[in-house]
Description:
This protein is α/β, with parallel strands linked by helices and about 350 residues long. It has 2 domains: about 5-140 and about 220-355, Glycoside hydrolase/deacetylase (TIM Barrel, Alpha-Beta Barrel); about 145-210, no CATH class. It has 15 helices and 12 strands. The protein has helices spanning about 15-25, 25-30, 65-75, 85-95, 110-125, 135-140, 145-155, 175-190, 195-205, 210-220, 220-230, 250-270, 290-295, 335-340, 345-350, and strands spanning about 40-45, 45, 60-65, 80, 100-110, 130, 155-160, 165-170, 235-240, 275, 300-305, 320-325. β10 (about 275), α13 and β11 (about 300-305) form a beta-alpha-beta unit. The chain is globular. It starts with 13 loop residues before the first helix and ends in a 9-residue tail after the last helix.
Amino acid sequence: MTSAQTETYRKPTAMGRVLLALHASGAARLAPTALAGIGVIFMLHRVREPDDTDFTPNRLLEITPGFLDETIRLVRERGYVCLSLDEAVTRLKEGDVSERFAVFTLDDGYRDNLTDALPVFERHSVPFTVYLTTGLPDGTAEIWWVALERIIASSIAVRVMLPDGEIAMFTRDGFEKHAAWNKIYWALRALPEDLLRAEVRRLAAEHGLDLQALTRELAMSWDEVRTLVAHPLASIEAHTAEHFAQAGLSDMRALADIEQGMTRIETELGYRPRHFSYPYGDPSSAGDADFARAEAFGFRSATTTRKGLIKPEHAGRPCRLPRLSLNGEYQDRRMLEALLSGLPFALARPIRSLGID
């Protein structure tokens, strides 16, 4: 398999086709170097081999160990130095632009971060940060997006109860399952967090899915977190206790969710986190009030899921840093090269709904 074909096991999305076109035309290669900024913070979630199924709506949150390996090789070939998050933030604040940096971050705290991602980082001696939702090792947080995927995957029909009515859809084949996911997922995301979680719990009970068992299956335990943080390449930072979208909470509740997560890390690991990642992190989930809250906590940095590369001006706003998602839909070296050029973000910047920062 060639590097251009690496782990691309589905036809490219519309965005993927745009990225391939920018690469094939040479436009990405000829883009002004200033568009690439001074560094990149990669965002990952899960690192594992793909399931052998056509219905994988959470695939965008997963990459293979092979693609992680190729990404590290690519950024080094392009002259990036791989730094820890803390060192990169120091360089950013000091205005050190002597060389571009690459930082690898993984959100939530999945077990495969230890079993599948660590060996890749270890092989290349690359530091990385896991932003830990402490409710996962505590067993109190629910990985509701995976629960929804499994409910739809195993059912022939799904009925969701919403404040303004119900959504009832057949899920008998792949086409119907994808249609149901697209409608139900976004309808749930539009709800207040408490209503979202309550409806997923109702769905899980109706379909015989044990949410706590799912968390135990997918997330690291505290003993596994301790094993990971003991590794010299790994660091654990804050990602709240329960993974609620900060913008949807009252100020008091948002503060409590952050504080509880930090306290649990301090209790279990013996130190207080210095960096933070906003759950979900898109413009509808984290805004100016949430950035100000992170600054008030004294975090050295806080990362979003807003799309972009690190520019010198981010030194003045370290609690709203953009990241580049290593997205399971874009596991192709050519797409990654186009993204690292910064050209796709420059072209898309006028479209505010895309969340470019």
